[in-house]
Specification:
This protein is of the alpha/beta class. It has 13 helices and 14 strands.
């Protein structure tokens, strides 16, 4: 792969990442402090580790280029695990005690919703790249929360459209038993009902986040004899599920599609070639399409000897958007930045992008395709890629207003 950065500049970025940011001083007014709250120790550990690398890279690049509005940027991280209360506390502590002016990251959606509640109370922007329940920006949206990945409704609708074009009529489902999983299956069923698709659900299998044993669940799926299996299991749970699926030869019996996010280079081959996979930012496809992304992927690999996940693409874009908002507003003050982010356009790893004002949702496309193993990369990639633009799959502004009105009515009645 062609190198896009001179070795001297890359060395400077590496030094800033490796030896910290607090010793670098740029401009007047002191450093701008931002926080990253994620799950570094539970179900989304692999995703969080990968995404945090992009945050480190972005901040190092900002500082190597002179900072943001002439000020050094400092990145402070906290591990909330898979505990919503910890995410809430970390956001609160970072803002009140550490003086951060924006929070990045995310985790499973219940954690994000709790962290978002803290950002709302403290009036500090929360830029989400992991965890994508629609309710984060729609039903429970507020002026300080922003999403840089397609939300669960957008992804589900995109894949539902694709599924209706396939010959499958009998489906099975396996997924995590919490708000995101139920939202996703609900969106699938709603779309199939709306178009009166002649399909049936052979079985639904639910498991708690953090599950490690899947033998009985897989046997139940096999016994139901579906044409296709929807796999919504993810993160560390997916690692355990795939090992059991391989042992029981699950994918010899049916087609499969779902959230087969890459876990690590060593374990990637547990995904069988040919499965249909959703991605929030396929690095190979985007690198071939956009020079900015090609340069990012090259540098990311040089720095970390791995490749970025879709969550990581979303995370880097969230940092780019925040920097653009600070520059446009001429201030890192949270309320000004949040106001500027609404409706703002910026150039990111997914091309020319913008953030919708009504709900803080970036116009993130949904991507999917078949997983292949190519000589170009040591890990599986999707190729060819089907890209569905956000404006084809997100709620209209009137629908957003309606959902929020319904949510407010429910809250008033409780």
């Amino acid at each position: 792969m062609k190198r896009f950065f001179k070795s001297g500049k890359l060395l400077l970025v590496w030094l800033v990442i490796s030896f910290g940011l607090s010793d670098v001083s740029l401009g007047e007014g002191g450093p701008i402090r931002i926080g990253f709250v994620g799950d570094f120790s539970a179900v989304s550990k692999a995703y969080t580790d990968n995404a945090y690398k992009a945050a480190q890279q972005a901040v190092a690049e900002f500082n190597a280029e002179g900072g943001v509005i002439g000020r050094t940027v400092e990145l402070i991280r906290r591990d909330g695990g898979n505990d919503p209360d910890r995410h809430y506390r970390h956001v609160t502590e970072l803002v009140r005690n550490e003086g951060v002016v924006a929070v990045f990251g995310g985790a499973a959606s219940p954690n994000v919703l709790k962290a978002s509640a803290a950002s709302r109370e403290l009036k500090v922007p929360y830029l989400v790249s992991i965890g994508n329940s629609q309710s984060i920006v729609v039903e429970n949206g507020h002026p300080f929360v922003f999403m840089f990945e397609p939300n669960s409704h957008m992804e589900s609708l995109g894949f539902s459209i694709f599924a209706t074009l396939m010959p499958w009529k009998r489906y099975a489902w396996i997924g995590p038993d919490y708000v995101w999983g139920h939202d996703v299956l609900g969106f699938f069923k709603q779309y199939f009902d709306d178009i009166d698709a002649p399909i049936e659900w052979a079985t639904e299998v639910w498991h708690p986040l953090g599950a490690t044993e899947y033998g009985d669940a897989i046997k139940r799926i096999i016994e139901s004899k579906p044409d296709a299996l929807v796999v919504a299991t993810w993160g560390e749970d997916l690692r355990h599920f795939m090992r059991a699926a391989e042992s029981l030869k699950l994918f010899d019996n049916m087609a499969a599609f779902g959230w087969f996010s890459t876990l690590s280079e060593k374990s990637e081959r547990i995904f069988p070639e040919g499965i249909w996979k959703i991605s929030r930012g396929p690095f190979n496809y985007l690198a071939a399409k956009y020079p900015l992304t090609r340069a990012f992927v090259e540098k990311f690999h040089d720095l970390y000897a791995t490749y970025p996940l879709g969550f990581t693409v979303a995370c880097y874009d969230s940092l780019l958007a925040w920097r653009r908002a600070v520059i446009e507003s001429g201030s890192a003050e949270p309320a000004e930045v949040a106001k500027t982010l609404k409706g703002m356009k910026f150039t990111g790893l997914r091309g020319e992008s913008y953030i919708r004002a009504i709900d803080g949702q970036m116009n993130s496309p949904a991507y999917f395709g078949r997983l292949i193993y190519s000589s170009d990369y040591p890990i599986g990639v999707i190729d060819p890629v089907i890209e569905i633009p956000a404006n084809k799959i997100w709620l209209t502004e009137k629908e957003v207003e309606s959902r929020r009105s319904q949510q407010n009515t429910k809250s008033d009645n409780n």
